[in-house]
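Fig. S4 source data, part A: sequence.
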Amino acid sequence: MIDVSGSREEIVLSFGRDPELGEGLDEETVQLSDRIVMSPFTAKRLGRLLDSVIGEYESEYGCLDVKPSPVTGPDQDPSLQPNVSRIKRSDEKVGLLLQLVKNLNVQVGLERSFKISDHTLLGNRFLLGTSKGAISPEPHERILHICKRMDMPENFLEIFKENLTQANYVHFGFEENVTSCIYKVYLELYEEIEKEIKIRPDKTDPFLLHLGFKWDASDNTKKALTRYTWYPLLAIEDILVRLSNILDPHGYKITLEIAKDIVSMASSRVPHNAILYLEVSEENNPRRSFDINMYRAKLQLRELYPFLLKMCGHYSIASEHFHALYEQAKSKRFGHLSGGIDREGRDFLTVYYGVEGYYISDRQSKRESPPERVPPPIGPDKASSIRSPFSTTGLTAEKAGLLLQLVENLDVQYGFERSFKISEKTLLANRFLLGFKRNTIRQEPHERILDICERIDMPEDFLKAFQKNLPEANIVLFGFEENESTSVLKAYLEFGGRFREVFKDNPENPSPFVIHLGFKWDASDNSRSTLAQYTCYPSISVENFLTRISNIYDNNKYRNSFDIVKGIVDLASSRIGQDQFLYVEVKEENNPRRSFDINTYRAKLALTELYPLFLKICHHYSIPPEEFRVLYEPVKNQIFGHMSGGIDREGRDFLTLYFREKGISK
């Protein structure tokens, strides 16, 4: 049993055990086991964290079945409703449809979507689907009853009856657009197709997979009959060609690029036959469109984030309007993409996501994981067998393990940051940084920090320079990196107090200053060492620091690397202002390294939201996507922090991406 109570000053979580059955108690008695008291602000943060974690869990493993509370009725507790709070349940047309489907008393799959066209973002759209075989008794009569109650046009009813016998699945839908509301009913005909495929498994002829019946909910004379034709076993290259036939590259270049990029990203996860390509046609109107089902790629919606932002930019959608919808849906599973030319001759894209199973009843709406409505793929699944690169063996290697233990022994809160570094055909993942505030060490802070330096065999000349600069540092960091041939130990001093000094001297145009000193040496041979100086450029504009990065990358010589960096900066710019970036340039003694570091922690981007850019990085540096996913999958929900890049000590271009868990202190 869990109970929540509160006052203005505190929120209380009480945990206990219900009485054993048969104890004969007149009143409900609960044995209290634990009680947690927190401030309302802490409770709110906890609620947000739980919402995020549960969303990610359900996206990965399926929906959780939550039984109704004994003290909260279904009308009071939105968690007992089918999670359609954003579907305007008070609207008469929506309410009727929900009631009619509820009366079937069967499991339904709820799928949401949003449609984007010029200056228009439509989010009040959903589909409720169920297996015809689950409806008993009299499935045909009960389905037709719903259609009549929804005021399906008479001629549609006749066509619907003719095809209902062959259908195995029925979907009921609603869409609110700029001027009206649309009812939709779809028949899925996959069982008939499956019979043909069993006879001829290599058959590539197109099949009619869906019939869609659509009409204005207030005026059923405004209607459209839609045919969805499936082209099985298309190679990805063929899908991209067909997209170009629908979206003329000369007139709809950006829309076509977005669709192609999303398909290409999904194809890096699954074989081509797990992606269902359909083309859509309607009688007596210019609609030419496609629908591509990619549920089997198991992409989260936020892994499409760069493409979604590109959609918003192309269609002139205000960022705040998009993000209000996106934040509620980002952890859901991406399903399919439709797009093309609509009935009015305008180009559009629609994103479908998050199929969830429900039983809609008077008492509660029970969520379950619905069966996938995607024909099974043929061949191996690229998305299987993902393991973590951060194995116990890697992190407890002798030098790394010693460093971790020494910092733990300080008994202070410290930040734990990981990173992966990518250069040509090289992906390095066994890297970490441990950082803490110098003044949090209670006794003999300098002596204890220097003791760590000595224990990890810092070179003598470095030790003297470190000791000299330590009193000015506000933060100390220790790091470990395993590269192709050796292991490297690192120590950094951060001089945060210098920010105040340079802004005090010149608030309008503060001068660059050294914000970090970095001491790095070979863990097996400390005579191989280098001292790095990190110069911060306060108040520099995004445009200006991108110009400086372009110069580091020698303008066009490393153009692809620069474009990737700019793409990540553009993503962060959608969340934060120019004054919230921290730009640093790095120089090392006696080597050609020229590099930069851009801190974007304030943007609060998850690694998932950079996924398409990570694939570009892999392509540029010749890293197999499967090898990258070994790194990515275990950490994908962590927060992207900063990136460094440029030309390394061997004269090669590189990128390093840093990230951490949402709670950074240990």
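Fig. S4 source data, part B ends here. The CA atoms of residues 60 and 275 lie 19 Å apart.
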